[in-house]
Design brief:
The protein is globular. With 127 residues, the protein is mainly α. The relative contact order is 0.14. Helix 1 crosses helix 2, helix 1 packs antiparallel against helix 3 and helix 4 runs antiparallel to helix 5. It has one domain. The chain is built from 5 helices and no strands.
């Protein structure tokens, strides 16, 4: 898989999550067995806004050269962010904060962290 395709996939994922987190935070989190008060809903909306920002960065940067320093910074940031997201999601799941659907988030963060990490640690090829 090409990095540009991975970035497109991640952009779509975070756009979708970001939009629903902003528009219907309580409904989305109830899917995971969580009940949000007003403050939790607001924080979820902030999280959604950050996801939309990330989607725009990924979408706009997906066609950059693998040697571009900005693209390297994006890949590093996404790798680290997804690794932290994996740890947070795993700890939340092990503590019983989310229902069984939370395992999907754990898996998604892990897969994306590994995929972006692959591109972080491999040399670009000429194509």
């Amino acid at each position: 898989m090409k990095l540009s395709v991975l970035m497109l996939i991640k952009a779509i994922i975070v756009f979708v999550f970001g939009i629903v987190f902003v528009l219907i935070p309580r409904n989305v989190m109830s899917f995971y067995g969580m009940t949000l008060q007003q403050d939790g809903a607001l924080m979820t909306q902030f999280f959604g806004a950050s996801f939309i920002l990330l989607g725009i960065v990924l979408w706009a940067g997906r066609k950059a050269s693998r040697n571009d320093v900005a693209l390297k910074a994006i890949v590093l940031a996404v790798t680290v962010g997804d690794l932290i997201g994996f740890i947070v999601a795993l700890l939340g799941q092990l503590r019983g904060v989310m229902n069984v659907f939370g395992w999907g988030n754990v898996a998604l963060y892990l897969i994306l962290a590994l995929a972006f990490g692959y591109f972080l640690f491999t040399k670009p090829t000429e194509s």
